[in-house]
Design brief:
The structure holds 4 protein chains of 4 kinds. By secondary structure, chain A is mainly alpha-helical. Chain A is 74% helix and 2% strand. The radius of gyration of chain A is 20 Å and the shape is flat. By secondary structure, chain D is mainly alpha-helical. Helix content of chain D is 74%, strand content 4%. Classes of the chains: A mainly alpha, B mainly alpha, C mainly alpha, D mainly alpha. The interface between A and C is large, with 48 and 50 residues. Chain A: Keywords: Membrane, Transmembrane, Transmembrane helix. Chain C: Pfam families: Proton_antipo_M. Chain C: One of its GO terms (molecular function) is oxidoreductase activity.
């Protein structure tokens, strides 16, 4: 069942992609419209619309870039490093 | 009755003289010898409580002398018993050998009773000359060809030592005008600080240093031990030393008033003997040579007892020499049994003895551990009492050096034990041991252990004996 | 409760000891029975808070084996539950020693949780360390031996620190009881105890053992290990160090550190190990915040974490078990072959990523909210950022690289791959069920929390909106940047470099210089002791042999050995010389006498 | 003589001493190997059972010597046969008597030739060992102390390994050389004490300071070599490696304890002032031993050598505990003496069992046997854990108390001892790991058979004690408590008296 479901999804990659983006947009819009931010903890939450969406995107990207940068700095090395 | 032991020995000597004239069979000689030795011991025991003077006071029979006579007779009996084959002696001179042995014995027995310088000298020479002759009687069938040389060396050393002794005696006579020990004892305290008296006493002592093999009169020991037949060595190693200790006790008790010098000298001799003997013994390959060197060390130990100038010290020395004689007899018993043809034994010849002759191996081991001073054997108890006596007199350094010597000595004794017990027989055949030798060795082992564990009776006896001469 | 305190650890230990005697068809029922019994015991005990099992030891120390209060109950509950799940997961393992080690390990953990003083704590603490080492060693991998060894040494070090700490504390205060330490009066022992406990919680820089060991443990062993060591340590930290500010910093650093390494990681179990580090960071931070809400959050998160991380490790174990591969570079596209495993991994992944209605959502947010409420905004934002990273790694990267995308499997691996045996699936079902239960039915978890008076409502609209926004846009970022997240056949250097290198150097030290020293000592003994003695002895023998004997004999027996002067003497005279020597000595004595 | 509680009725202690000796006599005559084994087992078991009857009658509340017997022996020298037991010695006596039957069992098939002789050595050994622990006359003590060397020498020299000659002579010479000055010290004490060898009379006397120092040095040489303390330890590995299993067990379990027993019985009470003066040096020597022993053990390939070096470390803990001179330290040290006897004895038995199968003591030839000998590796695993002081086992209690005592005495000192504990974990686990799992290329061990019931019976009691002492050490500590308290009271009283005398 699961296999069939995934295979079915894979037949329509473009549709899936679009639907996903639509869903993301819908979440942001719903947040802007329906959520009362007056009791939020911080200024940024109250005054920046869609703050958490921006935050999520940036956080993920920054983490990926930091990791990549660190990896290039020499943290990542060949697998037999300890066996020599 | 007072003179009975000596007469018996004399009679026994005559018996063997008669035997030399005829063509007696081996068995006759053997049986005669054993029987005679037993009779001598019996008469000695019989006369133990006799006291009295003979020969115008030159010869005294007291508990001291009688006990030494018993000891000498007993040791001789043991030598006779385990050496009864006389494997190492020329076939045709065996009756003569016994004759000389008895003469020597007579000399020793007389020595312990002598209380006059000339009597001492005569008795000493009597015992010595007989032994000088016995040494070259070894048969060349044993593969040893320097018995004559050994005999000559022994003789020449003896002559030198007796020379010293005679010289000393003449000094003493000159100083005191008497040759009687009692007389000298009266006079000596007065002369105590006269150098001549000290020198004279030391020179007299040197005669017995030679018998006991104390540095510097020990040079003869290894050669004579090696050159003489096993039975002869057994005799030399055990019997005359007892008499020598007896006389040394008599003489040092005289010299006890002569102050520091004698004491220092005895201490130096003692230390040098111990070190010299033990260190040399470490590298020996020949069992008898090793025992000879170890004898030098043990003689040094005995001096520890003498130089206390105290009753207990003397008693310890007596105890120790008796123990030493027992251990040595046990060792030589084994040597005589293992050396099938009377040859000299290297230490390696003992390998695997525990298989070849278990009882002998046990005997040898007990004797060696005892010689090494390991409890609970007589050697330990003796050493302990000697050290104790010396430390009571505050000779801490001496005692420490002596203790260190004990540790050194362990090595060569152990290397023999190792051969006996911890190695294979390397193709060496079994040793034939008779019932006599086995039971004799078990008796010796028992005595060595019993004397070590319960020395009280013997020490008390020695003390009471020594009290009679002080 | 009428004095009938039976320690659940005792049940586990007794069960483990009896296990070798249970054979044949009884084995599997028995395996299930023992942890269930222990679980029932825990349930029973949890109803009667109090102090039990108090024993006076050597007339001086009071040992408390059973302290049952609102903090220990929840941890005991989840540990016992996990023991059941883990045992079921390993039901197919024939080797009874693995079960025995695992049960001892569980017993150690339960013992720590119920312990009321440092001696008992230490006893069980070490039991955990040793038992878990065996779980690593049971893996047949060549590296497992070395890894287990490193693991053990690190934990022994931690144990020693702890021992130091509480002994010092005992010396200073005379108190052995295991209770909250004073933040305003810290002593050396406070830090030592903290180091000892933090090592087990894998707080940087004491963390490297975790990914190292968990990736090398046996398959079932890793399932046990991911649950017990760190969470037991969190319990002890919450007990002794609640409200220590330094822990907030360490916790946040830990969360970030772990997630960055997880992004780089290639080995699936190492990846999950790094994620444990990251998640435990939340808990450490929660302990550091120390408010009632934060402690609640820590407990809840530990509870939830054990289940979803257990689920993830079970999934990872299933993959390794069924494919023989553990590297992302060797996997991919497996959804066709292992659909159920995919399902479980996804459930685990979205639980850890705090999807609404899954367990992480109701627990993680508690800690973040607590930090907001304590006005620790930096911590709150950083932790939220890490939660984005968590989704990135566990919810997206891991399933994507294993199950979707291009297959990088060898044909053999592909052929082998299939969903695992029934007991593994059952265990995963149970864990997945609990993940969903916790997230959906709040009272189940919340009624067990230690501070019952503090209410927390996760399902508010702002919270939902916040979470969904973050998740959606993290997914978006993943979509754009997934090229950068691809699997690379590489390892990441970490602080374990120091352990490994130090260990190597240490062995070298023991083998080379010290052994040399000992040999030299023996030689010195021989040379100085025996040889010098023998030299003296030889000298004396030489003296006797060459100096005296040689002259007396007049023979040439040992001519070769004689020195020049002595050989001359030997030629000259024979017996006279000996006599000369003897007389010389006598003369010397006399001279000495006269002179002195 | 008020320190003695004379024995009424059956002379139990003398029986314990002389029964083995009497038993050995029969073996001189009957030389059948099978008979020798059963007979020795019977004799040692009877002695063990008899020794257990000491327990109910032992009064824990007194520091006096109990079950004492007193007979004159060599009256001219005032040497007496006087024996007695106090809280310090009773456990060691029980350890001795209880371990001997298992040594016999362990030699059942290990010793194949000259069995009666072997058993004679074992029995004589037992006599001497029990005697050393009960002797209250210094000469009696010394005689037994030295006499012990002979059977041990034969045990190593006859039934030992390839380098037995070297090892046995080294053992004998080294230990004898060490104790030879003890003899001088004994005689000195005799003359200083009004010609008495009675040990309690020699204690707590104000000998001159120099004399105390010299006495202490003599004691120290004798006992430190026996313990063996670093750097006097080199005889131990040689002897352990070459000795047969039973010999190793006796060496490790009992002989080594005589050194530390000597410290407690003689060095502390007879030379308290010197002890206080020299204590720091001894303590740091102990630390050096702990660490050195641990490090060296780590590098060993030979299992027996490994355990031998570990003994150096463990005994370092014992001397550490003794010389911190407080109740924790000393009680811990005595307990650790027992623990080391149990644990190391058991480990040597285990190694002997491997050796009987593979004829090698190399770690490399015993790798990976866990698969084929599960019972065996379980047992050796438990004993190894005990050896590294794993909580719940006996050594943990002992080491913990010693460290507690050390902490109370001096913190840096205690800290310095800690690496020893880590090292212990390192070397024991290294051995364990190799034995149980080994590497990737283990030799084929599939022909190995697991332990038979005789071997399991041999090890079972050790296991029992490992856990008993580990979990409930109270009864053991209670036995020694009075004596240790008394020792420390006397010691501190003596110190105060000295200080007071110094002030006026």
């Amino acid at each position: 069942m699961i296999v069939r479901f995934i295979d079915w999804l894979k037949q329509w990659p473009r549709t899936v992609r679009v639907l996903s983006l639509v869903a993301a947009a819908a979440i942001v819009i719903w947040s802007l419209a329906a959520v009362d931010t007056h009791h939020a903890h911080t200024w940024v939450e109250q005054h920046i619309p869609g703050f958490w969406a921006i935050f999520g995107f940036l956080a993920a990207s920054v983490l990926i870039f930091i990791a990549g940068w660190l990896g290039k700095c020499g943290i990542q090395t060949r697998e037999d490093y300890y066996d020599r | 009755m007072l003179f009975l032991p000596e007469l018996t020995i004399l009679g026994a000597g005559l018996l063997f003289f008669l035997l030399t004239l005829g063509q007696p069979s081996e068995a006759t000689i053997k049986n005669c010898a054993s029987a005679v030795a037993a009779v001598i011991l019996f008469t000695c025991v019989l006369c133990v409580n006799q006291t009295g003077n003979l020969f115008y006071g030159a010869y005294r029979v007291d508990l001291f002398s009688q006990i030494f006579k018993i000891l000498i007779a007993a040791a001789t009996l043991v030598v006779f018993l385990f050496g009864n084959g006389l494997k190492g002696i020329k076939q045709d001179s065996r009756p003569e050998y016994y004759l000389f042995l008895l003469v020597s014995n007579l000399g020793l027995v007389m020595l312990v009773s002598s209380v006059e310088l000339l009597a001492i000298f005569i008795a000493l020479e009597l015992s010595s000359f007989a032994v000088y002759i016995m040494v070259p009687m070894r048969t060349t069938a044993t593969g040893i060809f320097f018995q004559m040389e050994a005999g000559i060396k022994y003789l020449l050393f003896g002559v030198m030592a007796t020379g010293f002794m005679l010289f000393g005696m003449s000094y003493i006579f000159g100083l005191t005008g008497t040759t009687s020990l009692d007389g000298i004892a009266e006079q000596l305290p007065i002369l105590a600080n006269r150098p001549a008296a000290v020198v004279a006493m030391l020179m007299i002592l040197s005669g017995f240093f030679y018998k006991l093999a104390i540095f510097p009169f020990h040079f003869w020991v290894p050669d004579v031990y090696e050159g003489a037949a096993n039975e002869t060595t057994a005799f030399i190693a055990a019997v005359p030393k007892m008499a020598a200790v007896a006389l040394l006790i008599r003489l040092t008790s005289l010299a006890s008033h002569q102050g520091e010098m004698v004491l220092n000298l005895l201490m130096v001799c003692s230390i040098l003997s111990m070190f010299y003997g033990n260190l040399s013994a470490l590298v020996q390959k020949d069992l008898k040579r090793m025992l000879g060197f170890s004898g030098i060390a043990h003689a040094g130990f005995i001096l520890l007892g003498l130089l206390t100038f105290k009753l207990t010290g003397y008693a310890s020395a007596v105890y120790y020499i008796v123990g030493y004689a027992l251990m040595n007899l046990a060792c030589f018993l084994v040597i005589c049994q293992v050396a099938a043809k009377g040859e000299n034994l290297g230490i390696s010849d003992l390998s695997g003895l525990h298989k070849r002759a278990p009882i002998l191996a046990l005997t040898l081991t007990v004797a060696l551990f005892s010689l090494a001073g390991i409890p609970p054997f007589v050697g330990f108890t003796g050493k302990f009492m000697l050290l104790l006596g010396a430390l009571r007199e505050d000779h801490l350094l001496l005692v420490t050096l002596a203790a260190i010597n004990t540790a050194i000595a362990i090595y060569y004794y152990l290397s023999v034990v190792r051969m006996t017990f911890c190695s294979d027989s390397n193709g060496l055949g079994n040793v034939q041991t008779g019932f006599l030798a086995n039971s004799l060795s078990l008796i010796l082992v028992t005595v060595i252990i019993v004397m070590g564990v319960a020395p009280s009776w013997f020490v008390a006896l020695a003390e009471s004996a020594i009290k009679t001469i002080l | 409760m009428t004095g009938s305190f039976i320690h659940p650890a005792l049940i586990m230990i007794a069960g483990a000891l009896l296990l070798p005697f249970i054979r044949g068809p009884f084995r599997k029922p028995y395996l299930c029975l023992v942890p269930i019994l222990a679980f029932c015991d825990v349930l029973y005990l949890n109803q009667f808070p109090g102090t039990y099992g108090v024993i006076t030891f050597m007339d001086r120390w009071t040992l408390v084996f059973g302290r049952i209060d609102n903090l220990s109950t929840i941890f005991a509950f989840i540990m016992a539950l996990m023991a059941i799940i883990g045992t079921i997961y390993g039901l197919h393992v024939e080797d009874e020693w693995q079960h025995i080690a695992a049960w001892f390990y569980v017993a150690g953990s339960l013992g720590v949780i119920y312990s009321g003083d440092y001696l008992v704590l230490f006893l069980f603490w070490e039991m955990m360390a040793f038992a878990s080492t065996f779980l690593i060693w049971f893996n047949t991998d060549k590296d497992a031996l070395a890894a287990g060894y490193r693991y053990l040494l690190v934990h022994t070090f931690g144990g020693v620190m702890l021992l130091f700490g509480f002994v010092l504390r005992y010396q200073a205060t005379g108190d052995l009881s295991f209770s909250l330490l004073d933040e305003h009066n810290t002593q050396l022992y406070t830090w030592l105890i903290m180091i000892g406990l933090m090592l087990n919680a894998a707080v940087p820089p004491l963390h490297s053992w975790l990914p190292d060991a968990y990736s090398k443990a046996s398959i079932t062993g890793a399932v046990f290990m991911c649950a017990f060591t760190t969470k037991t340590a969190i319990y002890t930290l919450a007990r002794a160090f609640a409200g220590f500010d330094i822990l907030i910093v360490l916790g946040v650093v830990m969360a970030i550190y772990g997630i960055i390494y997880a992004i780089l990681e290639n080995d699936i179990r190492r990846l999950l190990g790094w994620e444990i580090v990251s998640q435990v960071g939340y808990m450490v931070a929660g302990v550091g915040i120390g408010t009632a809400l934060a402690i609640n959050g820590t407990c809840a998160h530990a509870f939830a974490h054990i289940l979803y991380k257990g689920l993830l490790f079970m999934g990872a174990g299933a993959i390794i078990h069924c494919t023989g591969q553990s590297k992302l570079t060797e996997l991919g596209g497996l959804y066709r072959k292992m659909p159920l495993t995919l399902l479980f991994m996804v459930v685990g992944g979205i639980s850890v990523s705090a999807f609404p209605f899954f367990s992480g959502f109701v627990s993680k947010s508690m800690i973040i909210t607590a930090s907001f409420e304590s006005h620790l905004y930096w911590a709150a934002f950083l932790l939220t950022a890490v939660s984005a990273g968590t989704f990135l790694v566990a919810g997206l990267r891991l399933p994507y690289l294993i199950f979707f995308g291009a297959s990088r499997c060898t044909p053999a691996t592909w052929e082998k791959a299939a969903d695992p045996v029934w007991n593994m699936r059952l265990a995963m079902w149970i864990a997945a069920f609990f993940c969903l239960l916790i997230g959906s039915y709040l009272p189940f978890l919340y009624s067990m929390l230690p501070h019952a008076d503090v209410a927390f409502h996760p399902y508010t609209i702002p919270h939902m909106a916040e979470t969904l926004q973050i998740l959606a846009f993290t997914a978006l970022a993943f979509y754009f940047l997934k090229g950068r997240l691809a699997a690379r056949a590489a390892i990441s250097l970490d602080l374990d470099w120091f352990y490994r290198m130090a260990g190597r150097g240490f062995l070298w030290l023991a083998e080379k210089p010290l052994q040399w020293l000992d040999t030299a000592w023996g030689a010195a003994y021989r040379v100085v002791g025996l040889v010098s003695l023998m030299t003296i002895a030889r000298f004396s023998a030489w003296f006797d042999w060459n100096g005296i004997d040689g002259v007396v004999d007049g023979t040439a027996r040992f001519v070769q050995g004689l020195g020049g002067r002595i050989s001359v003497l030997l030629q000259k005279g024979q017996i006279q010389m000996t006599l000369y020597y003897a007389i010389t000595f006598v003369a010397l004595f006399l001279a000495a006498y006269v002179w002195l | 003589m008020d320190q003695l509680l004379l024995n009424q009725g059956f002379p139990l202690l003398s029986t314990l001493i002389f029964l083995p000796l009497a038993g050995s006599l029969l073996l001189f005559v009957v030389r059948d190997p099978h008979f020798a084994r059963y007979w020795t087992l019977a004799v040692t078991s009877i002695v063990a059972l008899l020794s257990l009857t000491l327990l109910p009658k032992f009064d824990r509340d007194t520091a006096a010597f109990q079950f004492a017997e007193h007979h004159p022996w060599i009256e001219s020298l005032n040497i007496t046969y006087v024996i007695g037991v106090d809280g310090i010695s009773i456990l060691l006596i029980l350890l001795t008597t209880l371990i001997m039957p298992f040594c016999v069992l362990a030699s059942w098939t290990y010793i194949k030739d000259r069995v009666p002789a072997f058993m004679i050595c074992m029995l004589i050994m037992e006599t001497a060992m029990i005697g050393v622990f009960v002797a209250l006359d210094f000469v009696l003590f010394y005689i037994l102390w030295e006499a012990m060397l002979i059977p041990m020498y034969f045990l190593i020299g006859i039934w030992g390994g390839p380098r037995k000659i070297y090892a046995s002579i080294k053992f004998f010479l080294y230990t004898l050389a060490g104790s030879i000055l003890l003899l001088v010290a004994i005689i000195w004490l005799y003359t200083a004490n009004g010609y008495s060898f009675f040990i309690p009379d020699m204690m707590w006397k104000d000998y001159p300071f120099t004399a105390q120092i010299l006495l202490f040095i003599a004691f120290f040489l004798a006992f430190a070599i026996k313990v063996p303390m670093f750097p006097f330890h080199t005889w131990l590995p040689a002897a352990h490696v070459e000795a047969p299993t039973a010999g190793s067990v006796i060496l490790a379990s009992i002989l080594l304890k005589m050194g530390t027993y000597g410290f407690l019985r003689f060095a502390l009470p007879i030379t308290p002032e010197a002890t206080t003066t020299l204590m720091p040096y001894v303590l740091w020597l102990s630390i050096a031993g702990i660490i050195y022993g641990g490090l060296t053990a780590l590098a060993q390939q030979d299992m027996k050598k490994l355990i031998a070096y570990s003994s150096v470390g463990h005994m370092g803990f014992v001397t550490l505990g003794i010389f911190v001179l407080n109740i924790d330290g000393i009680e811990g040290a005595i307990l650790q003496m027992i623990n080391h006897g149990i644990t190391t004895g058991a480990l040597f038995l285990c190694v002997g069992m491997i050796y009987e199968r593979t004829h090698s003591r190399e770690l490399s030839s015993a790798t990976g046997i866990g698969q084929y000998m599960p019972v065996f590796v379980t047992l050796i695993g438990i004993f190894s854990l005990s050896s590294l002081a794993f909580p719940g086992t006996n050594s943990f209690v002992g080491e913990f108390m010693i460290l507690a005592g050390a902490f109370r005495h001096d913190v840096p000192l205690a800290l310095a001892a800690i690496p020893g504990a880590v090292l212990a974990a390192a070397y024991m686990l290294r051995m364990l790991q190799k034995i149980i799992w080994g590497g990737t290329n283990n030799p084929d061990q599939s022909w190995l058979t697991d332990l038979n019931s005789r071997e399991i019976i041999t090890l079972a009691p050790f296991l029992f004690f490992v856990f008993w002492i580990g979990l409930g050490p109270q009864p053991f500590l209670a036995m020694m408590h009075s004596s240790v308290v008394n020792l420390l009271d006397q010691f501190h009283g003596y110190q105060q008296a000295i200080t007071a005398a110094g002030m006026y």
